[in-house]
Amino acid sequence: MGYSVGQVSDFAGITVRTLHHYDKTGLLSPTERSAAGYRRYSDADLARLQQILFYRQLGFGLDEIATILEDPQANALGHLRARHRLLNRQIAELHRMVEVAERAMEVRRTGVELTPEERFEVFGEITFDLSYATEADQRWQHSEGYRHAMAQAAAHSKEDWARLMAETAAWRQRLTAAFDAGEPATGETARDLAEEHRQHITRWFTPCPTDMHGRIADDFAADPRAFALVVPPAEQRPGLAPYLRTAVHANAAHRSPTRNT
């Protein structure tokens, strides 16, 4: 009985026009006829179509497919190996393009204009989560402070970043030491560390009033991706992010002009 053009189009997932084109070029012509004279596809035709679609998916041209299917002496394995090499080259190029796109997005979202090698040299285990950077950009894009911080980050040289990160590492060491020693988060030592962090932001990125610093610390405690920007996971302790948040808010309260009124 065979199958109609419409039926083959439906279950093969290709258009009737494509089947007509294959018929016209002789690549796949239905071998059966209905009682009314209409062309019908046999099981053998469908098997051939499956081969055609397989080769098309690999990127072979119709002429190449015709040669492979029609010539019993055609070296199909040789064609496949050549296509395999080409696809691997294309995959490598696509990976390179993905890296370029990710690099462009990373610069746009983080403001850090360094090569991957420079980033590794300067930041070490500190990583920028692109999903967090993208969300932060969307959330704060209309904030003058955020725009100023991004502009400052983009203007920093490799040497600037190296000094900045050295400051951060020294501060981080004192923060974890205070936490490990059981210094109270509302005490003078923790408050001073919070103030040092606030001044660091002001010096390197944007003026950071205490209320803004509080929002940043809240983000550290709420989102591990944010806290990883200042304390890499390998150096974190359970409770360290909330400890810093409490210290930041305690510092803000301590410095409030109305705290003693």
From TrEMBL:
Query: What is the official name of this protein in its record?
Result: MerR family transcriptional regulator
> What molecular function does GO assign, one term?
DNA binding
List the PANTHER family hit by this protein, alphabetically.
HTH-TYPE TRANSCRIPTIONAL ACTIVATOR MTA, REDOX-CYCLING DRUG-SENSING TRANSCRIPTIONAL ACTIVATOR SOXR
At the highest ranks, the source species' classification is: Bacteria, Bacillati, Actinomycetota, Actinomycetes, Kitasatosporales
UniProt keyword DNA-binding, yes or no: yes
Domain called HTH merR-type: residue spans: 1-71
Q: Which UniProt keywords apply?
A: Activator, DNA-binding, Transcription, Transcription regulation
